[in-house]
Amino acid sequence: MITLNRKLKKEHTEPTNGLTTAESIVRRISVRDKLLIKEVQEMNENLPATCSVHFEDPNVLSEFILTVAPDEGYWQGGKFKFTVIVTEDYNMAPPRVKCQTRLWHPNINVDGDVCLSLLRQTSIDEHGWAPTRRLKDVVWGLNALFTDLLNFEDPLNIEAAEMYNKNKTEFQTKVQDYITKGKR
Amino acid sequence: MSGEDYDGLDRGDNDGQKPDKMFTLKKWNAVAMWSWDVECDTCAICRVQVMDACLRCQGESKKDSYGKQDCVVVWGECNHSFHFCCMSLWVKQNNRCPLCQQEWSIQRMGK
């Protein structure tokens, strides 16, 4: 955190060479990074018990791995890793999220694409992304995909949702198969 | 008369004096608080006070003719306030107030 603050200060004091495009990129990054200084701390302070975050490079706050280990429901016993990338246009645009663990879930496909309303850039209702949302809301949303926000009505993995509707035991077995396959 | 006699006896128990004060205020300092007269004083988009320059303008250190940072506040019909800079970026993609989801229309602008 301290190093990033210093880096930001340095960026501001550095003389500009009249490169307007380069300048504007630096400015956009710095707005995101300033937001991240506050939001990463807030996220860490409000982390649900089932979640943990890891920063590969502690000086880069815009990329981290979120691990969700559900303590109830169909995915109990599994550990699911998500990469979260906060792009330069944050917070006008939501972070980009990808699930790195293969799993059987109606709202996450086997390629790792995640269907979560608050990560949707354009949305006609109030559930989509808004600049008032923060990183802690994204973590909360991903964590809730295994409990409260689990949605079989509007699936991304249609096969998984159909299996659940036909045979819940089969669905449960397949979910656990993926979990044990992932552990090997 | 007998009632008065009793009173006299009661006072006798208190040594006939006024009861001691619980505490005495010897010194005090007055403290005044103030806040902006708006419903929402922090811009929910950049999380900086609306009366200060927004996060973007602070980075650019834009100055107006008075040497102050030129970053105005905008109030919507829904009474929510934001920095004009922050809100104009957002309405480009979604013309709703990000706090109440009402259609965004400007009620007034300024400081």
UniProtKB/TrEMBL annotation, chain A:
Give, as in the UniProt entry, the pathway in which the protein acts: Protein modification; protein neddylation
- Keyword terms: ATP-binding, Nucleotide-binding, Transferase, Ubl conjugation pathway
Citing just one GO molecular function, the answer is:
NEDD8 conjugating enzyme activity
Please identify the protein, giving its name as recorded.
Answer: E2 NEDD8-conjugating enzyme
The UniProt gene name for this protein comes to: LOC113501517
Xref: InterPro entries: Ub_conjugating_enzyme, UBC, UBQ-conjugating_AS, UBQ-conjugating_enzyme/RWD
EC number(s) on file: 2.3.2.34
Q: What organism is this sequence from?
A: Trichoplusia ni
> Can you state which reaction this protein catalyses?
[E1 NEDD8-activating enzyme]-S-[NEDD8 protein]-yl-L-cysteine + [E2 NEDD8-conjugating enzyme]-L-cysteine = [E1 NEDD8-activating enzyme]-L-cysteine + [E2 NEDD8-conjugating enzyme]-S-[NEDD8-protein]-yl-L-cysteine
Which family does the entry's similarity section mention?
Belongs to the ubiquitin-conjugating enzyme family.
Which positions fall inside the UBC core domain?
A: 31-184
Query: Any one Gene Ontology biological process term?
Result: protein neddylation
Q: Could you name the domain of life of the organism this protein comes from?
A: Eukaryota
Annotated active site? C115 (glycyl thioester intermediate)
UniProtKB/TrEMBL annotation, chain B:
The question of whether Mitochondrion is a record keyword is answered with: no
- Signal sequence, start to end: none
**EC number(s) per UniProt?**
2.3.2.27, 2.3.2.32
Q: Name the GO terms of the biological process aspect.
A: intracellular signal transduction; proteasome-mediated ubiquitin-dependent protein catabolic process
| InterPro entries documented for this protein | RING-box_E3_Ubiquitin_Ligase (IPR051031), Znf_RING (IPR001841), Znf_RING/FYVE/PHD (IPR013083), Znf_RING_H2 (IPR024766)
TM region(s), chain numbering = none
> What is the protein's given name?
RING-box protein 2
Q: Which organism is it from?
A: Trichoplusia ni
Question: What gene does this protein come from?
Answer: LOC113496374
